[in-house]
């Protein structure tokens, strides 16, 4: 473990990772430019994300990030807080559950924390189910909760 917020496992230690918690990560901004670029990349130009006037009149009062953009930002957060060394190939195998209980306002900052829920020995590697909670600075409820399924191979 490198500090109070991050955990590091050698590949051969993954069998014992169940129950380990990590985070929170550092706060990272979600600027409107990133939201606009995500809209362009995905073709999702829902006005709640990109139209300042329409979003101002919405229940959120401002433009908000796409839920899937928020979810994809897990990568830099996990790079900071959860490390596995000594494996050959690592893959995001999928997701079990995802919810977006609160919005991420444009220009706000988010961070993550997590817990390893389950470890399965695959014979040639390990599958980890990792619960990750995203929070927005100053918010009173999570903006995203997700169970990621990661596979680490020798």
Summary of the model, kept short:
Helices cover 22% and strands 38% of the residues.
Q: What are the SSEs and their pairings?
A:
Elements: E1 7-10, E2 21-22, E3 28-29, H1 32-42, H2 47-50, H3 52-56, H4 67-72, H5 74-81, E4 82-85, E5 89-99, E6 109-121, E7 125-136, E8 144-153
Parallel strand pairs: 1-4
Antiparallel strand pairs: 2-6, 3-6, 5-8, 6-7, 7-8
Characterize the structure shown.
With 154 residues, this protein is α+β, with helices and mostly antiparallel strands. It has a single domain (7-153), classed as Thiol Ester Dehydrase, Chain A (Roll), CATH 3.10.129.10. It has helices at 32-42, 47-50, 52-56, 67-72, 74-81; strands at residues 7-10, 21-22, 28-29, 82-85, 89-99, 109-121, 125-136, 144-153. A hairpin with a 7-residue loop joins strand 7 (125-136) and strand 8. The radius of gyration is 17 Å and the shape is elongated. The model has no long low-confidence stretch (mean pLDDT 96).
Estimate the mean pLDDT confidence.
Answer: 96
* N-to-C SSE string, H for helix and E for strand: EEEHHHHHEEEEE
> DSSP helix count?
5
Dominant shape: elongated
Query: Any guess at the CATH architecture?
Result: Roll
Question: What is the percentage of strand-forming residues?
Answer: 35-45%
Number of folding domains? Answer: 1
CATH class, anyone? Answer: Alpha Beta
Q: Find the structural class using helix and strand composition.
A: alpha+beta
> Which fold does the CATH topology refer to?
Thiol Ester Dehydrase, Chain A
Distance between the termini: 21 Å
Helical content, roughly? 10-25%
* Largest sheet: number of strands, sense, barrel closure: 6 strands, antiparallel
Backbone CA Rg: 17 Å
Unreliably modeled segments: none
Compute the number of strand runs. 8
